[in-house]
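Let's sit down with a protein and look at its sequence and fold side by side. Please make up or recall a protein chain and show it to me in full. Label the sequence line and the structure token line clearly, so we can match residues to local backbone shapes. Go ahead whenever you are ready, and we will take it from there.
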Amino acid sequence: MLVVTGVPSSSSPGRADGPRDSEPGSRTDTTSDRAAGVTVALHQPHYLPWLGLLDKIDRSDRFVMLDNVQFERRGWQNRNYVAGSGEPVLLTVPVVQGSRDDRIQDKVVDNSQKWKHKHYKALAEHCYRKSPYWGDYRDEVAHLYEQEWNGLTELAIATTRLLMRGLGIDTPLLLASEMGDFPGHKSELLAQVCAKAGATTMLSGDGARDYLEPETLRRYGIDVEWQGFRHPVYPQHARGPGDFVPRLSAIDLLLNTGPEALHVLRRARTQN
């Protein structure tokens, strides 16, 4: 099983760790200590993910990247919004067009387009140059866009890990494509992946209430907990107090609040 930890080695910043075995008794051991309770969350890998996904990662003991499911055209696997001086700016990573049945793990970044320069310039010059903490994270963001990215999954995980490091989230990440073959679909697939990850509880976003079948999870001995995400409101450097823009990439929170970002995210859970 591939375990992608929240903090990379110094020799390979921004990239997923290579395969390594889980150690017995660690947070990533999927066979022991079920009696203690293990919360697992799952989601497709997203480019520069939004706060709802970071909140889900922070609240789980293990987080599974569902890279073995169908790529969604016009979804969020390869794009997200960041702050602009006016309207939010949509950053999209071009991918090589293939079959509509392509899985996320199969998607290849279209590097014939100058997307890296465009995205970094948008962040560094137009969106966050005057944000309070741009200087603290500029080098790491720049390093991300200096690297060559071929697989979309690899890039999405790198952006997720960058944000996890910035916020101080160390939840282990697992790749579903490296965990085995799962013949199920929909709720059955989620149950099979969660069981393989050692879950006693699956943390699910509220958007899944319309289609998730908790009884299917219970057949695998897994309870369902609903995330109930509450979006924090925080100062945005280019906007006034009454002009807050939600649902941007989590990089917006990080560059505006710096070391307080995780506290801001967690505090929102307890607010009415």
The longest helix spans residues 152-167. The helical segments are 51-58, 115-127, 134-146, 152-167, 187-196, 214-219, 251-257, 261-267.
